[in-house]
Design brief:
Number of strands: 7
Distance between the termini: 16 Å
CATH class: Alpha Beta
Shape: globular
CATH superfamily: Vaccinia Virus protein VP39
Strand order of the largest sheet: 1-7-6
Number of domains: 1
Helix content: 10-25%
Radius of gyration: 17 Å
Order of helices and strands: EHEEEEHEHE
CATH topology: Rossmann fold
C-alpha cells in the first residue's frame, strides 16, 4: 500500500482490533458465576477465522497489532492518528457492553515528503 501513496499522501485504515479477533470465534462466554467475559486467547498466533452472520460467511484473519504496526513502519510510513472510537448515543445498556471490549480502531498513516 505504501508504494501507491504519493509523498505526503495518507492511508486511512479502519480495522477490527486484534483484541477482538483474538477472542473469535468464542468471544463472549459466561464464567462460573454467570458473569459475561470476553475470551482472548492465542493472541500472538496469526490465523484465519470463519465467521457467519445475517446469511453471509467470511474468512477473517487475526493478527497481533504489532504485525500491522511493524509492516507499516518498515515501509517508512508515519503514524499520524490512532483512535479506538467509543460508542455514543443509543441504549445505555448496549453502550456499556460495547465499552467493555474495543471493537475496532482507526489509524492514519502518512508517507513522508
Amino acid at each position: 500500500m505504501a508504494g501507491a501513496l504519493r509523498p505526503g499522501g495518507t492511508l486511512l485504515i479502519a480495522n477490527l482490533t486484534s483484541f477482538n479477533t483474538a477472542g473469535q470465534p468464542t468471544g463472549w462466554t459466561r464464567d462460573g458465576e454467570g458473569s459475561a467475559r470476553f475470551t482472548i486467547d492465542h493472541y500472538m498466533d496469526e490465523r484465519p477465522i470463519w465467521l457467519s452472520w445475517r446469511g453471509i460467511r467470511i474468512q477473517n484473519w487475526h493478527r497481533p497489532l504489532s504485525k500491522y504496526m511493524t509492516l507499516l513502519l518498515d515501509q517508512g510510513l508515519l503514524l499520524r492518528m490512532f483512535v479506538e472510537p467509543e460508542p455514543s448515543g443509543g441504549d445505555p445498556a448496549r453502550i456499556a457492553i460495547h465499552r467493555r471490549v474495543p471493537y475496532f480502531h482507526i489509524m492514519e498513516w502518512q508517507k513522508p515528503d
